[in-house]
Design goal:
Largest sheet: 3 strands, antiparallel
Distance between the termini: 51 Å
CATH class: Alpha Beta
Strand content: 15-25%
Radius of gyration: 16 Å
CATH superfamily: YlxR-like
Structural class: alpha+beta
CATH architecture: 2-Layer Sandwich
Number of strands: 5
Bound molecules: zinc ion
Number of helices: 3
Order of helices and strands: EEEEEHHH
Number of domains: 1
Length: about 110
């Protein structure tokens, strides 16, 4: 059968890989930074999720903002990360008890800072 169902045929294909996901729950105009509590475009924020492997206390940086599960949004700055860390906002946002290892996030920020 040569059926060509192009569901996405109406949209422009010029979009770079920054926003490939249109899944429900993955789109939203603004999110609140867990660090400074300011609202911003989700494209300006970094999404943090629990490590998909399920390892306790490990965080993953959801670069594309599309990983399943509960996410915490934060500005990609060390200042907001420090704020979030100080008030334990990330584990609260992710509904986990116990400390979370934010070192992976910090590494990510340091890499993208330069
Ligand atoms: Zn912030």
């Amino acid at each position: 059968m040569g059926r060509r169902a192009r569901l996405s045929g109406t949209g422009p294909r010029a979009q770079p890989s920054t926003s490939p996901c249109t899944a429900p729950g993955c789109t939203g105009p603004v999110r609140t930074c867990v660090g400074c509590r300011e609202r911003d475009q989700r494209s300006a924020l970094l999404r943090l999720v629990l490590e998909p492997s399920g390892r306790e206390g490990l965080l993953a940086v959801d670069v594309r903002g599309c990983l399943p599960g509960r996410g915490a949004w934060i500005h990609p700055t060390s200042a907001c990360l420090a704020l979030a860390e100080r008030r334990r906002a990330v584990p609260r946002a992710l509904r986990v008890t116990g400390p979370l290892d934010l070192s992976g996030v910090r590494d990510h920020l340091e890499q993208s800072d330069r």
